[in-house]
Specification:
By secondary structure, the chain is mainly alpha-helical. The protein is built from 20 helices and nine strands. Helices cover 55% and strands 6% of the residues. The strands form four sheets. It has a three-stranded antiparallel sheet. It has a two-stranded parallel sheet with strand order 1-2. A two-stranded antiparallel ribbon has the order 3-5. A hairpin with a 2-residue loop joins β6 and β7. It starts with a strand and ends in a 5-residue tail after the last helix.
Length: 510
């Protein structure tokens, strides 16, 4: 696999996912190495001159007015890491932990942090040889950077903490030794340079955005399947309707549905069966489109943050200064990830309503709960219950984290973002949405079977139907359905549903 070159400026979502999930190797660009060396020279000069610079020759937070001697600089940096590694909860998944390391490498590669080159190369070696720190998910306020999670990232570099290597969780020093990577001793500024930033929240959120892009496409496919099953009125998708309210997402969603349904013999015209559909069918372009616009907005913010300097102080080699600021504050990401969670929640909200139209005989006209011999069979009755529970859980999770703040460090850090909580909530919402969409797809395929419309499916819905039916047979009599849902969810998770549809019908626009 070709190495991904880390420049500090050009990292993309796709590259992040390749490193995090496919173990793509990384390498520092030559110009990045040079910038790192030059910024380190500035830190060495500041230490030699005993200049008063936050975190280099002073303590941290409330202790910023405490002067640290040159002899104490190394101890200061080590103390910072071991005292700040106080995370709680289950560890982040491996892909998120790798993302945290990669984003920190990219941040340091910009040359504004003053670390030694060998420190950055240690992180690169850990990525390439598969040493993944065990990083607890909870404990970050998302303002002075993701201090607790990032400190846990650093521990194995010092021979402390825990790391996963070749599928086994080991003491940090053992993992590093087995991978053939020497541990390090931090010098002035380096502990702070490793933990002051938004890399934990950004890793969680960036991977959620990456997955949300694929899930948005799956949502349009699921809506098209329900449209087919309900013999939806295609007039609502007329491009003229959407051109007079020209939101990008709305117009693209309507175009997606027209493309997916092209050639369908199941859809109807206005007045043929009914004049208009319920909102969960008729307003798919408006609802999905709004979520699509939100996801694209969040993507734009994430790509800025992935390639931004979030350290403090920031080292400017041109003027040989270390300037203390607030780039570690996670508010730009906190608001974005709260928005992401809300946008994703709406995809599940409307999906569950479409599912209800299928299983409710008073709405869809199908046998109750999409099964013959109702009463003896319950069919998909409790599938809707489960979807409703997930949707309601999302409503709780979608409460914004970013409107909360709590002072820390004796009032020195008196406003915080809670951005890491926002990112984690968005990722959890995404998992719930994926499950609800899997349920809708399963029910829509069952409804198509009851309609007898398999042979009249559209250009995009036909391959979607075949993909679902390859993992989930038509329900004739009651059977355990959680396994079917799991398999339907799997074709959403691995992207095979979207790939099958795009191969047949062309790209689904975002």
């Amino acid at each position: 696999m070709e190495k991904i070159l880390i420049t500090g400026h050009t990292l993309t979502l796709e590259e992040l996912a390749a490193v995090c999930r496919d173990n793509a190797p990384v390498a520092l660009a030559p110009e990045a190495k040079q910038r790192i060396l030059e910024s380190r020279q500035v830190v060495d000069m500041l230490v030699d001159e005993a200049a008063v610079v936050y975190g280099i020759t002073t303590g941290f937070g409330k202790f910023s007015d405490v002067t640290i001697t040159q002899d104490e600089c190394r101890q200061l940096q080590r103390n910072l890491i071991v005292t700040h590694a106080v995370g709680a909860g289950d560890p982040f998944p491996r892909d998120v932990a790798r993302g945290i390391m990669l984003l920190r490498v990219n941040n340091l590669a910009k040359g504004f942090s003053g670390t030694r080159l060998e420190l950055v190369e240690t992180l690169v070696a850990m990525l390439n040889r598969g040493v993944t720190p065990v990083i607890p998910q909870k404990g970050s306020l998302g303002a002075s950077g993701d201090l607790a999670p990032l400190s846990h990232m650093v521990l194995p570099m010092l021979g402390l903490g825990q790391a996963e290597y070749e599928g086994e969780v080991l003491p940090g020093d053992v993992a590093m030794e087995r991978a053939g990577i020497p541990t390090v001793e931090l010098v002035a500024k380096e502990g702070l340079a490793l933990i002051n930033g938004t890399q934990a929240m950004t890793s969680v959120g960036a991977l959620a955005v990456y997955d949300a892009i694929g899930l948005m496409k799956a949502a349009d496919i699921a809506a098209a399947m329900s449209f087919e099953a309900n013999r939806g009125v295609e007039d609502a998708l007329d491009p003229r309707v959407h051109a007079v309210r020209p939101h990008d997402g709305q117009m693209k969603t309507a175009a997606n549905l027209r493309n997916l349904l092209f050639g369908s013999g199941n859809v109807t015209c206005q007045g043929e069966i009914r004049v208009q559909d319920g909102y969960s069918l008729r307003c798919v372009p408006q609802v999905h489109g709004a979520s699509q616009d939100a996801i694209n907005y969040v993507k734009s913010k994430v790509e800025i943050e992935m390639n931004a300097v979030t350290d403090n102080p920031i080292i400017f080699k041109e003027t040989m200064e270390g300037i203390s600021g607030g780039n570690f504050h996670g508010q730009p990401m906190a608001l974005a990830f709260d928005f992401l969670g809300i946008a994703l929640s709406e995809l599940a909200n409307i999906s569950e309503r479409r599912l209800e139209r299928l299983v409710n005989p008073n709405l869809g006209g199908f046998p109750a709960f999409l099964v013959k011999k109702g009463g003896l069979n319950s069919g998909f009755m409790i599938v809707q219950y489960s979807a409703a529970a997930l949707v309601s859980e999302n409503k709780v999770l979608a409460h914004p984290a970013s409107v909360d703040s709590i002072p820390s460090s004796a009032g020195q850090e008196d406003h915080v973002s809670m951005g890491t909580i926002a990112a984690r909530k968005a990722a959890e919402i995404l998992g719930n949405v994926r499950r609800v969409l899997a349920m809708e797809l399963m029910c829509a395929c069952q409804a198509v079977d009851l309609l007898g419309g398999q042979e009249r499916l559209g250009k995009g819905t036909a391959p979607a139907y075949r993909t679902i039916r390859a993992v989930c047979a038509t329900l004739e009599d009651d059977r355990p359905l959680y396994e079917d849902i799991n398999r339907c969810e799997a074709v959403l998770r691995d992207g095979s549903l979207v790939r099958a549809v795009e191969k047949a019908a062309g790209e689904i626009e975002l």
